[in-house]
Amino acid sequence: MDIYHAVTSDVKDIYDLIQIYAEKGIVLPRTYLSLYQHLQCLYVMKQDNNILGVAGLHVLGPDLAEIQSLVVSPDYAGKGIGRSLVKRIISDAPKLGISRVMSFTYETEFFKKCGFKIVEKETLPEKVWVDCMNCPKFNCCDEVAMIRYVG
Fold first, then answer.
1. Is the separation of the CB atoms in 22 and 42 below 8 Å?
2. Rounded distance, CA 73 to CA 120, Å?
3. A single GO CC term, please (predicted)?
4. CB–CB of 79/116 below 8 Å?
5. 118 backbone dihedrals φ, ψ, rounded to 5°
6. What confidence category does residue 143 fall into, taking pLDDT thresholds of 50, 70 and 90?
7. Distance CA 105, CA 11 (A)
8. What residues pair up with 146 in beta bridges, in sequence order?
9. Which residues lie across from 59 on neighbouring strands?
10. Domains of the chain
11. Are strands 42-47 and 50-59 parallel, antiparallel or unpaired?
12. What is the pTM of this model?
């Protein structure tokens, strides 16, 4: 199992995998257009050309990026795929000048195991102004903000 930068031929499978969790309200849905527009930000773990997991690293400011759309195929949950994707993102972030990686998540225990700490959402105005203003959960967000310093 290796981690790659996503390519256009991965988009349908990425979309389908994200939809599994979006329908359960665990992650926000993504459109095909959004996936194509942010393709250079997406990482996939593959085995035999099958996508087992996906995660995005979205830059929000000069030193801040967010892990988005981190999902793993239900058939491979609990096998370290999510952690491997986060580890890869954390190792690549400093190459982009990123010193802080954050996530808005329900999976706090998972992110704690990956070295993240809970913070107040208000400490991340870059996220609020870039993404939250257009989010359907803006007035009732129940996700937890977490951050990890890298580099």
1. no
2. 30
3. cytoplasm
4. no
5. -70, 135
6. confident
7. 23
8. 103, 118
9. 65
10. 2-149 (3.40.630.30)
11. antiparallel
12. 0.89
Sheet holding 2-5, edge to edge: 2-5, 42-47, 50-59, 64-72, 100-105, 144-149, 117-119
Q: How confident is the model at residue 122 (pLDDT cuts 50, 70, 90)?
A: confident
Neighbours of 131 (CB within 10 A): 16
Structure tokens at 72: 């793993």
Amino acid at 25: G
Letter string b/e over residues 50-66, b meaning 16 or more CB atoms within 10 A of that residue's CB:
ebbbbbbbbbbeebbbb
* Cβ partners under 8 Å of residue 59, min gap 6: 41, 65, 96, 98
Of the candidate ranges 23-32, 56-65, 95-104, 121-130, the one whose mean pLDDT is the lowest = 121-130
**Closest to 4 measured CA to CA, from 58, 61, 49:** 49
Torsion sign, CA atoms 108, 110, 112, 116: negative
